[in-house]
Amino acid sequence: MKGLEDVISLDSTHWFLDERGWQFKDQYKDSLYGVPYLKELYLKANPKYEDCVTVPVLWDKKTETIVNNESTEIIRILNTTFDKFIPNKAGLNLYPQHLQVEIDSVNEWIYETVNNGIYKAGFATSQTAYEDAVYPLFQPLDRLEAMLSRSDYLVSNTLTETDIRL
After folding, report:
1. Per mean pLDDT, which range of 9-18, 87-96, 102-111 is the poorest?
2. Contact present, 107 and 160 (Cβ < 8 Å)
């Protein structure tokens, strides 16, 4: 979308999260160091790291460290930081100043209701917990369907980070 493929490489972890964490296996490879687990990159950045290992991760190849591991912040970093490397797409701003309040508002309720709702349902450890998490998802999904029936985009009929996040 922004044309960053020649500036930033992309590696994906395997979809299955095991007791050792996110892993690189099968067709999912760490192209930089060949490590089998994402935790090894966290430890490369900080040998004393003991917190949760999460995805996504924005890695700086030159300094060999994690720049960021929070998806919203990474989207915002990628939105404009590398524009000088992609002059043909530098004008595409997914978080324009005049829409930031509306973008933040829609992002907040989608995160709280849809993203967290899916997470809670997906990690439910009982049928009751699953039902308690999944049924409340239908209201925000209906709201999104109504919004998208009127426009191809969620905010101001233009492509924004809200569309990417969803």
Report:
1. 87-96
2. no
